[in-house]
Amino acid sequence: MKRCTARKDRIMAKYRKKPVIIEASRWWADGDHPRVEMPKATVKDAVKVCKKCDHLLMDHGMCETLEGYHIVCPGDWIITGIADEVYPCKPGIFEKTYEAV
Ligand SMILES: [Zn+2]
């Protein structure tokens, strides 16, 4: 077992992301991305409205990220990262963080 005893990295400093190239596409509905699946929602849950985007939960997808399953709102970007991992990203954050190459 390893214990975390190092204290050298505790000083807060500024870092900039390296300019890595990622692949991304927007997800709107079932079939738009091979790694976004439709959740098996109950009828009761399916007619609930998402607090983030105002669409019905039944119109949402799910994708398995490194941190477990994440809900995908219609219009979210699905990013494939440098380790072939996928994760959803809200359009506003995507536009601030990425540009087309
Ligand atoms: Zn939503």
Mind explaining what this structure looks like?
This protein is an alpha+beta fold and 101 residues long. 11% of the residues lie in helices and 24% in strands. The protein contains 2 helices and 6 strands; from the N terminus they run ββαββββα. The protein has helices spanning 43-46, 91-97; strands at residues 23-26, 36-37, 61-65, 68-72, 77-80, 86-89. The strands form 2 sheets. Strands 1-5-6 form a 3-stranded antiparallel sheet. A hairpin with a 5-residue loop joins strand 5 (77-80) and strand 6. The mean pLDDT is 90. The structure holds zinc ion. Zinc ion binds at residues 50, 52-53, 55, 60, 73.
What is the percentage of strand-forming residues?
15-25%
What spatial order of strands do you see in the largest sheet? 1-5-6
Count of distinct structural domains: 1
Largest sheet, if any?
3 strands, antiparallel
Percent range of helical residues? 10-25%
